[in-house]
Amino acid sequence: MIYFLDTNVISDIMQQHENVTTHFKYNDAMGNVLVLSAPIEYEIRRGLIHKKAIKQLEKLESGLFPLLQY
Question: What are the two backbone dihedrals, phi and then psi, of residue 35, each rounded to the nearest 5 degrees?
Fold first, then answer.
């Protein structure tokens, strides 16, 4: 199955909402395709840079983004 993630899902994962992170980890483990589109990635990066949340951006780039397909 293919899942396209939106900004709200990425935000919930970053805030470690249990239901969302559990569902994300399950689908990743099941081999489902988790997709992040370029506009959503841009929106997330722009928001974090605007808030000067560089550590959060680095965490996404090293932890979450590599798990996703584009």
Answer: -115, 140
Q: What is the DSSP string of 46-70?
A: HHHHHTT-HHHHHHIIIIIGGGSB-
pLDDT values of the chain reduced to their tens digit, one per residue, 70 residues: 999 999 999 999 999 999 999 999 999 999 999 999 999 999 999 999 999 999 999 999 999 999 899 9
Note if the pTM is more than 0.70.
yes
- Residue identified by tokens 């396209």 is 4
Domain ranges of the chain: 2-67
Give 32's contacts (C-beta < 8 A, 6+ positions apart).
Answer: 1, 2, 3
